Structures are given as C-alpha cells and as structure tokens.
Amino acid sequence: MTQQPDHLPPLTEATRAVDGAEHGITKKGLSAGAVGLIGAIVIGISCIAPAYTLTAALGPTVSEVGVQVPAIILVGFIPMLLVAFGYRELNRRMPDSGTSFTWATRAFGPWIGWMAGWGLIAATILVLSNLAGIAVDFLFLLISQITGNPEIAGLAANPLINVTVCLLFVAAATWVSYRDMQTTQRLQYWLVGFQVLVLLIFAGAALVEVANGNAFDATAIELSWFNPFAVESFSAFAAGLSLSIFIFWGWDVTLTMNEETKGSEKTPGRAATITVITIVVLYLLIAVALIAYAGVGTGEFGLGNPDIQDNVFFHLAGPILGPLAVLVSLAVLTSSASSLQSTFVSPARTLLAMGHYGALPEKFATVSPRFFTPGYATIVSAVVASVFYAVMRFLSEDVLWDTITALGMMICFYYGITAFACVWFFRKVWWRSVRNFFFTLLFPLVGGVILGVLFFTTLIDSMNPDYGSGSNIFGLGLVFVLGMVVLLSGVVIMLWQWWKRPGFFRGETLTRATAED
Amino acid sequence: MSGPDRIVVGYTANESGADALALGARLAAATEALLEVVMVLPIEVRGGVIPPDTGYERYVKERSRTWLAEASATLDDDIAQQLHIRYAESFAEGLIEAAHEFAASFIVVGAARGGLLGRMRIGSVASALLHSSDVPVALAPAGAREVAPAQGVTRITAAIGTRAGSSAVLEASVRFARSAHAPLRLLSLVPIDLPSGMDEGLADLASSAHADEVLAEAQRSLPAGVDATVVTATGATIEESVRDLEWHAGEVVLVGSSRLATPHHLFLGSTAAKMLRELPVPVIVVPRTTTP
C-alpha cells in the first residue's frame, strides 16, 4: 500500500499517533509476500469450486444448448476474462472492500453504485442458498452410500427436512465465517487436490464405461460439440453463456491477488493462467465424458432429464462409479464447504463498505472486535440467504435450477456495471499507453457489452413461462420473476435509504472521480 | 535496563480489553512505566480459502486505529503511552513479539471470557499466552476496568511454593515492589502443595513446619532494605485458603508458572490455575526463568 487513496475519512490527531503503518515488524505481517504460486492457485480453484459448480450448472446448460456445452464453456470464458482485466485495474487503483459498489459509485455516482453493490450482494446470496442446497443433497447421498440405504438419499427431497438441514448448514458456515476459522492452507491443498482427482476419476470412469459399451446412452463424441455456432438459436446461446459465466465466477480473484502474491511480478498472472487451464480442462473433460455417457436425452439418466438436471452428479455418480460414488459425494461436499467459506466473505464485505459510506445503516460497518470480521453484515447475509432458500424451496420444485439461472443474470448485471465503471473511470488515461488502451478501454468495454447483452437477452427470454425449469408465476417465468423481484426490491431499499440517509446520495461520503494519471 | 520500564497491553475493543487497559494503566502509574498499547490484527492470508483483500485489510486497520484512539482518550493524559498496531498469526504471538521488541516487563491481557454467572474463566487468548510467553503475563480480572488507576498498587503478594520457580517469583516481586513503592507480602502455599493422600496429622505437622521454613528462607534471601510480611495459606483447598485471606483492593499477586521443558505441558500449574479462578485481584504469572 504505497498510496493513501483520498476518499478515506481523514485521520484525526489521535489516530495519527498510532504507529504501525511503516514500522519494521509490521511489514512482515502485511499480506505482501504471503501467498505463493501454489497458494494462489489453490485459493483460485477453491473459490471456483469446480465439483460444486459443475454439478449445479451442467444440467441447466445442457437444457439450453444440448451437446454444445464444451463450446459454451470455451466461449463463456472470454467475457469473464475481459471483465476480470477491468476488475484488476480498478482493484489496483482503488483497493476497497466494497469492490463493485465502491468502484461504480466512483465512476457513475451513488445510484448506479448502489445498484451494483446490490447486484453483487444478491448474486452471492443466491449462490449461498444454492451451495447450501447442493450440500444438503450430497450429505444425504453420502449417508445413504455409507449406510447402504438408498432411501436416505430420498430424504433430501422432503422440503421440511431439506430446509431444516440447509439452515443448519448456513448456520455452521456463518459461525465459521464470523469467527474467521478458515481451513488452513495445508488442509486446503489436500482438499483441492482431492477434488480435482475425483473429478478426473469420475470423467475417466464415464469414458471407460462408454468404451466398454455400458453407457446409459452412448453418444459419439463429435467435433461439433466444440463449435459455438452449432447452437440452435441466439437465445439458447445467450442463456448458455450466462450460465457459463457462473462456472468461471471466482476465477477473477487469482488475477486481483496481485498485491498479495509473493515471488516475481509474474506470479499472479501465472497463477491465474494455471488455474484457468486446470479448470477449463476439467470442465471440458467432464462435460464431454458425461454427455458421451448419458447423452442429452430425457431418459432416466439423460442429461436432458429435468428431474436430474439441477444436480447431475447426484444422479450419475452411482451408475458410473458404483461403490466409488462416495468419492464424488465427498468431493462435492468439501468443494461446497470451501466455497461457502469464501463466498460468505463477499456480500459481508460489500455490505460493510455500504454501511461505512452511509449507503446502508451504520450497523453494517461493524467489525467484530475479537475476530476482525464484518460480524453484523455476515449475520444479515446468512439470515437473508436462509429465508430466501426456505421460501424458494416451497415455491419451486426446481429451486436449485432456477436460482442458478437467476444467478447468472445477476452476475452479468453487476460484472457488466463493474466493467463499464472501469472504462469510465479511466477515460482520461485511455490513450496514455498501449497497455491502457487494452486494459482500461477495449477489454472491459467488450466484456461489459457482452455481459449487458446477455443480461437483457436472459431477462426478456425468461419472461416465457417455459424458460429454465418451467416453473412460473402468473404465466411469467420464475427466473424472470426472481430477477425482477431481486432488482426491484433493491430499487425500493435504495429509495428508502435515500430518504433515510441522503448524505450518500448527495455524494458526501464517496465522490465521483476519474483516474488522472 | 535503560529508559523507563515498559508494559505491553494487549488491547481488544471489548470489555476484556478495557480490563486489560485499566490494569495496565494502573501498573504503569504505580511504577512510572511507559504503556505500550498494542492491538494485534490477524494476518489475512493464513488460511487457504479466502482470497486476501487489501481493501478490507486497510479498513480493519483504520477501524483499529479509531479503537485505539478512543481507548487512549479514556486514559489520563499523564500516563505515558504509545499506541501500536501489529500483525501476527495469533494474538498471543503478536503480543510476545511486541513485548520482546519493547523489552517490556509485563504483558497485560484481560483474563475473562464472559464466564457464566459471574464465574471467571480464563479466555483462550490469556490461556494461549500462559502457555507460550517468556515474559510475565498480568491477567486483568473481569471488572478491572472499574478500578481507578489512582488506586495504584497498595501491596504485592508473592505466592511461594516449594517447587522450582519460586525464586523467579521472589525476584520479580522484589523488583516490582521497589518500582511500585509497595509493601511486599510473602504467601506460602506449602500446606496445599503437598501430595494428596498423605496422612492428615503428619501432613499438618510437616507442612506447617515446612511452610515456616520456606518463608523464613525466602525472607532471608530478600535483598537488604526490602522488608516483607509473611502469611501461610490455611485451608483444605486452594480455593478455601484464597477466600480466607485478606486482600487489598489495590493488591497484585505474583505466582510462578510451572512451565516444563516438555511440550504439551501447561505453563500454568494447577495450583496457580485454581488461584486464578478465585482471586478477586489481578495476577501476574512469572515464567520460571525470567529474562534478567
């Protein structure tokens, strides 16, 4: 931290007397030089949580684009990469726990900034409830695999049991998050290694079954699976893409860990590259293997079967791996658990920043004096995620599916705003260098436009009652209703805050700014 | 040692931290020591899951500065003090590092962890320190924040047993009594230090004789010019004896640790631990070998 950004509240005389900033012993404690290459890769992979992500997203993606899932995975990475570049530039210039909220406020003023913060919080809360939901399914599956009693896995379908266990999961994750009891680096290395290994075994076993002629619906692998232009319609393409945004979500952290990685300046770039190559290879391998094994039909184990689409590993692990299916359950469970830990942090920190700058009640800015975590914001996020999950579970049979689709939409929303915030914030320095041109103008702009198109396409298409899982309310697709309720309630709360705390909306706490050099 | 004595206070922005700060201020006022108020923040990237976030780290640091400034404002201006923020793997580690850096004579922390029904329990931070510190640790009991610094240190009690470690306690107590200009009281715990199961009459006889002997020897070993009163703990249990003794409001007790070289052994002996739970006054736990 070389520069003190100017939007901080001024230090009073008393606080100035506190040493610590540049003192010798403190340097050691600063996170600079704390994460190595492997550490950054491990954090990256556990944030993406490939085992969890794929089991949740593969089904919905197949339902949109059929066998072209591999193509969508490859293409989906592009907007993510472009936006991540912008994200990195903003993070470098204005490191702030409020991320998208703070940056969008600086670039576009309080109203858009507030909504960007809301989008981030909504997306992470959606994913929290989805994560916990997937974890519940696999917990029951694991117990049934260990006890050899298949009826236990079915218990997860009972809404009452499901919601209760899910709330317990969220409560446990909140406890861990509030007390900042992170998994140690060493254990995390093993968990991530285990997760990757199990996914490889899973994909390998599926291909072996295909070769042996034991596949459920053997489908010959074709090159056209990798061709994005083979997708039937633009709507399907857009819907698939917005889902694939979700599967790479979290990868950007490896790029933004620039300040904190040790080794050469190239470490963050290398970590990000290795992480994404690992992830893409895993995704492609599993997508290809599972499509080859199960096909995209609507049969019992077909990936097109709506009954299995919201959690495909849950249904396919048994037929493919037999007794070893227990490994998949373990991998998904540990993957969800790590992801719950890292995901809990983002809404809490954004809420904290919003409280700090007066965009929400000051209480949200509370930091626990013992654990130095955003205590109040963490608990509020947990309560909202729990209530959301409980309501959705009773509202929709395919809650996991619909939340994933709505989630993709929310990510497009706030990432899009963030990308544009980057472009706008750096507008005076676009032409200063070739590097600036690419990283502050071209890449984030193209990324932002893609996400914007995806957002609106998904929004319009999802009005159709048949969209996604086919759940609907008054003839409108549930995904649309969900997205609108989330966004409009954001607007309502924003107006309420504007009335209660006009200071932030007058730009008194966080002013608009542009990068000058 | 050059310059004034220094006392490190491990501060947290809660009641336990306020207890520690008040006790630290009281000790500093009594011994004319310099108060080093230290907040220890966790190193962010110690786990393998949550990506480090410079923005949040800075926020917590700013918040801690405000906390420190607020805490400092509650202290009298005539107490010399410096405020610090340190990063470490754990609170205990950060405090021990700070104590080494400042060559501090004590580390003060709040002992309490909101025990049920007013019973004091030793919190995880205090207990981590007690198991690893090579600097004397002063434990502020819950409610220490209610005692005014002007109360000073009215008497120092050195708890002396037969076990090794007593001499360190004695030395530290003498030094402390001198700098605080407070009278010294030697307390023998011998009768209760005997192994259980010993014949009662024999134990009584042996122990009281032994207690007198230990106290007498302790008194003899005091440097010239230092005077001390002596008292022998009586009672079937430590708890009972501690309750029966008379304590000043401004009293401070020094006990020795039974730190053993082997790992997995408690720094704090069982006797001292029992005393801690009963004592209404602050306790300073002195390592077996204090650094001179």
Mind explaining what this structure looks like?
- The complex is a heterodimer of chains A (517) and B (292).
- Chain A has helices at residues 13-16, 24-29, 37-48, 50-65, 69-93, 100-108, 110-147, 151-154, 159-178, 185-211, 234-248, 252-256, 267-294, 306-309, 312-321, 325-356, 375-395, 399-425, 434-461, 478-500, 502-505, and strands at 472-473, 476-477.
- Chain A is an all-alpha fold and 517 residues long.
- Chain A has a single domain (34-505), classed as Amino acid/polyamine transporter I, CATH 1.20.1740.10.
- Chain A has a two-stranded antiparallel sheet.
- In chain A, a hairpin with a 2-residue loop joins β1 and β2.
- By secondary structure, chain B is α/β, with parallel strands linked by helices.
- Chain B folds into two domains: 1-151, HUPs (Rossmann fold), CATH 3.40.50.620; 153-292, HUPs (Rossmann fold, 3-Layer(aba) Sandwich).
- Chain B is 39% helix and 20% strand.
- Chain B has nine helices and ten strands.
- A ten-stranded mixed beta sheet of chain B has the order 3-2-1-4-5-10-9-6-7-8, with helices on both faces.
- The longest helix of chain B has 22 residues, at 200-221.
- The termini of chain B are close together.
- At the A-B interface, α2, α3, α10, α12 and α16 of A face α2, β3 and α3 of B.
